[in-house]
Specification:
- This protein has 272 residues and is an alpha/beta fold.
- The chain has a single domain, classed as Rossmann fold (3-Layer(aba) Sandwich).
- The chain is built from 7 helices and 9 strands.
- A hairpin with a 7-residue loop joins strand 8 and strand 9.
- It starts with 9 loop residues before the first helix and ends in an 8-residue tail after the last helix.
- It comes from Vitis rotundifolia.
- It is found in: Nucleus, Nucleolus.
- Keywords: Nucleus.
- GO terms for molecular function: rRNA binding.
- Its main location: nucleus.
Length: 272
């Protein structure tokens, strides 16, 4: 039988509380890792994804021989790293003759593989290949716009699934209100065909428009690449149903009046 250890220190208890289920989930962390063989292009792609998500990402640069997504028994190590780092999204890079410059993007539920999308990277351009005013560089932690252009994202199953996964990967923490001045970059995904998506990253420049709402200009700052969908695996219905469950909000406790507060604690205010 497995021995269950209970946290004793205050720090350990706070870490356990952070990982516990919440009514309003915080931003999801991303795990970035690689297989036994990678290419220079793939290393650059992984490095720039980590740079874009540096405030909420963990990257492992060592080779991992036991990770083989889509294969039976090849996902155990991946689930272990997900539990260890408390990451619910992962990006796994590998390179082979059959599948060159290969990226697998997936999500986990309860630190078990939930779904997978495998894409090939083509026509990659790094941030360094773009010339622009460095003052336009997006700030770490700022919220992005995400645009999906093309009917394929609504009609093709592979692209609909890729859209869901990219949204989870790129959007960061969900918020209700935004300051317009804090929106400084956008991710644009264009469906070129039924299995190919052009991905680019742009900085947003605010210009005067003569009205209260400023005019926005997009300046490409990279990276950019073509993502060719190779394989994808949807979650089964039972797991999806379990993951979509939402907890009911607990009723708020009634706040005691000042008089009851003093009464219950046997503290009586001085008489006037």
């Amino acid at each position: 039988m497995l021995k269950i250890k209970t946290p004793k220190s205050g720090k350990a208890k706070r870490e356990i509380e952070k990982r516990a289920p919440k009514l309003v989930e915080s931003g999801k962390k991303t795990l970035i890792l690689q297989g036994t063989k990678t290419s220079n292009v793939l290393n650059a792609v992984l490095a720039e994804i980590y740079h874009l998500k540096k405030d909420s990402a963990v990257r492992y640069t060592r080779k991992n021989e036991n990770i083989r997504p889509f294969e039976s028994g090849g996902e155990t190590s991946l689930e272990f790293f997900s539990l260890k780092t408390d990451c619910s999204i992962f990006v796994f890079g590998s390179h082979s003759k059959k599948r060159p410059d290969n990226l697998v993007i997936g999500r986990t539920y309860d630190h078990h593989i939930y779904d997978l999308v495998e894409v090939g990277v083509e026509n990659f351009k790094s941030m360094e290949s773009f010339t622009y005013d460095k003052k336009l560089a997006p700030k770490v932690g700022s919220k992005p716009f995400i645009a999906f252009i093309g009917e394929g994202f609504e009609s093709v199953d592979e692209l609909k699934h890729l859209k869901e996964v990219l949204l989870e990967l790129l959007r960061g923490e969900v918020v209700e209100n935004l300051n317009l001045a804090g929106l400084d970059h956008a991710y644009i995904c264009t469906a070129v065909s039924s299995n190919r998506v052009f991905f680019t990253h742009c900085a947003m420049r605010l210009k005067k428009s003569g009205t209260i709402v400023p005019r926005m200009e997009l300046v490409e700052v990279g990276p950019s690449m073509d993502l060719v969908v190779r394989r994808h695996r949807l979650p089964n219905d039972s797991v999806r149903k379990e993951a979509m469950k939402t907890a009911k909000e607990q009723p708020k406790k009634k706040v005691e009046s000042l008089k009851l507060y003093f009464y219950h604690r046997h503290i009586f205010p001085p008489s006037m």
